[in-house]
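User: dTDP-glucose 4,6-dehydratase, Marinicella pacifica:
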Amino acid sequence: MHNNLSRIFVTGASGFIGSYLHKIISQSGYDVICIYNVHAINNSTPSIKCNLQHESLYDQFIKFKPDTIIHCAGLNPSALIKQDDSMFYQFNRDATLNLANQFLKYCESNQNKNKKKFLNLSTYEIYGNIKDLNGFNESSSTNPLNAYADSKAQAVNEIEQLVSNSVDFINVICTNNYGPGQSNDKLIPVVFNKLIKNQKIIIKGDGSSQRTWTFVKDTCEGIIQALKNGKHKRYHLSANNQISVIGVIKAIHDILKSQNFVATDSARLTWHEANNNPIFKIDSSWSEKELNWTAKTPFSMGLKHTLEYLKKQRDE
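Assistant: Predicted structure for dTDP-glucose 4,6-dehydratase:
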């Protein structure tokens, strides 16, 4: 990273992407301070407890003088906790804009020769169902299909309206991420646990819904490139693979079968309810050139790494 990005505040550093990103930038020798609301990442990392929806970090900005904010914190849909739509707007829109505006206030009142950066991490679900096979590009309009995606889309659109000579506001749009350390309620860990227990896997719709799967290490490397090379723009990070839910399940089953972890010739599936099987897809070709980044991990390789991690976790 450039020297003017030496002190970095990271929100959501105890989460899936945030924890991986925190590890990479800490090992690179940069000053990292984590912002948390519920769980601090560890005792050795400087941390600040703050409710981003309501509290101001301005005094902490004055004290620690961060050059960069990486905003990974947010509320994702989960089967593990009860959620209502208002929670998505509170965590994903209101908290993001409060943080961005407080950082803008700090940057404009403490200007120096180095331009600061605020990076907001978001999801390709903000665009909704694809309109053509090429997917959405960085200038596409948002068209979210649910409250979660709408809350993220509103944050992205509002941040793009913030203009300052002292700070670049960057939106990084990700696809489905996967890898070691992902929450147990996400597709790959769920399928793994169901298969090794020979339990039925519940499929919503007909399983043809397609997603893009990007390995978490590749995404984090893309975020770092966006900090190095990004300007006041929107950037896409994608492995550019389109795999259906059924395809993911089959791939997991085949790997476990080859390793004698499962004995059945196919996964046991049960169909839950019909849905419209949306296809989410983004075109990252422009961003790859701008950021000098590309996803390096094939899905088959990333999936094997992930399953090895899940097997070790199971044995502990």
